[in-house]
Amino acid sequence: MAIIENIVYEMLTENTGTHFLDSGGEDGRHWQRNQKKSLADFQAETELELLDADSDYPTYYKSLFHHLVDSLEYLDQGTKDLQAWIDADPYHYLDNKDGRGHIIADIEDYMRMTYNQDLEPRCTYTFNFDNSLSQDIQFISLGDTYDCDIIALCIHNGADARGGMTDYKIFKMRDEDLFLGDLYIEYVEGEEARA
């Protein structure tokens, strides 16, 4: 567990920059708040918390740290290979406009080329639907997850949802049901949530 915990911690604290048009202010971006926490702080987080229990619409809040640590396996060589592929022809806004970077289209190309040419890449961004996670994630998968359990994943560490993504890293879903099924945990009165 130590390796995945350290990788997820590094991602959660990765500086994804600032922009004068985002709403992060002086210290409101995820990476800025997360850098004030230690790995032990994330390990000690409540995994699943019921919010607004006394309202008509209670919801669950799930620690992204625990969600990723419990459901994924980090693929170090896969991440190194991805970075080497990007570094072989890096994007530059003046000198190499057709180069590669940590953007959706390039990562989709890499995933298809590396893991399965025959499967369509799919990009999922949890910002675009109800979810219970403490931060949003974006991941590229190929076809149905039963066809390929390797994903490229980044974490939204900014303030504005249109930017502030970490660099992608390669993971294997150890538990697809937990990774995909627990993105949103619905509150059902009288039932205990799985944690």
Describe the 3D structure:
The chain is of the alpha+beta class and 195 residues long. It has one domain (2-13, 29-181). Helix content is 30%, strand content 17%. It contains 7 helices and 7 strands; from the N terminus they run αααββαβααββββα. It has helices at 2-12, 30-34, 39-43, 64-71, 76-87, 104-115, 176-181; strands at residues 48-51, 59-62, 72-74, 121-125, 137-142, 150-155, 169-173. A 5-stranded antiparallel sheet has the order 3-7-6-5-4. The protein has a two-stranded antiparallel sheet with strand order 1-2. The longest helix is centred in the middle third of the chain and has 12 residues, at 76-87. The model has no long low-confidence stretch (mean pLDDT 91).
In terms of topology, how is this protein built?
Blueprint lengths: L1 H11 L17 H5 L4 H5 L4 E4 L7 E4 L1 H8 E3 L1 H12 L16 H12 L5 E5 L11 E6 L7 E6 L13 E5 L2 H6 L14
Antiparallel strand pairs: 1-2, 3-7, 4-5, 5-6, 6-7
Measure the end-to-end span. 18 Å
Strand fraction equals 15-25%
- Sheet with the most strands? 5 strands, antiparallel
How many separate domains?
A: 1
Radius of gyration: 17 Å
Across the major sheet, the strand order is 3-7-6-5-4
| Global morphology | globular
Q: What portion of residues is helical?
A: 25-40%
Write down the overall mean pLDDT: 91
Oligomeric form: single chain
User: Could you name the ranges where pLDDT drops below 50 across 5 or more consecutive residues?
Assistant: none
Can you count the helices?
A: 7
The structural class is alpha+beta
Number of DSSP E strands: 7
